[in-house]
Amino acid sequence: MVSYDELVEPLALDLAYLRLSDFVTLYANGAYVQVIQNPLSLRAELKTRGPITEDQGRALVHAGWREPQRGEPVWVRDANWPLRADAARQLAHRIIDAARAFVAPDIAQVKYNARNYDTWEPIEPVSLAALRRSQ
Cα separations (Å) of 87 from 15, 36, 83, 115? Predict the structure, then answer.
């Protein structure tokens, strides 16, 4: 079974090679963390199962997430494109940390979707292939 920590480096590499409109979503229990390639940035979004504590909110802000705006139910974290290696690694850490804390503490519960938003073609990031093999 692959662990959350083992996904960080492969995910960082995958993030650097996403094409325009590619997205990757990790989801479970009514919550998700996803990333989508926009023209000028890579946007990560986190939707929690329900309200979070003030301490959890402060931790997310400290990790670079922006609080949900009115009419937007997700926490957001943007990274300028193209990604530098250190920015890709940092974003991968934040995505994995969010998945572990807010999507599912047990990686065995996590499902994923990876596609191009415009064409709906599936994509196969290396990091998620490792997750698929372990389930």
Answer: 10, 15, 6, 22
Q: For residue 113, what are the contacts with CB-CB under 8 A and spacing of at least 6?
A: 23, 24, 25, 27
Whole-structure pTM value: 0.94
Tens-digit pLDDT string for the chain (135 aa): 789 999 999 999 999 999 999 999 999 999 999 999 999 999 999 999 989 999 999 999 999 999 999 888 899 999 999 999 999 999 999 999 999 999 999 999 999 999 999 999 999 998 888 787 766
- Nearest partner of 90 among 2, 26, 5, 8, judged by Cα: 8
Name which of 121, 130, 133, 132 is nearest 18 in CA terms. 121
Task: Please give the Cα distance from 130 to 3 (Å, whole number).
Answer: 10
Report d(CA 32, CA 47) in Å as an integer. Answer: 5
Residue pair 15/78 in contact (Cβ under 8 Å)? The answer is no
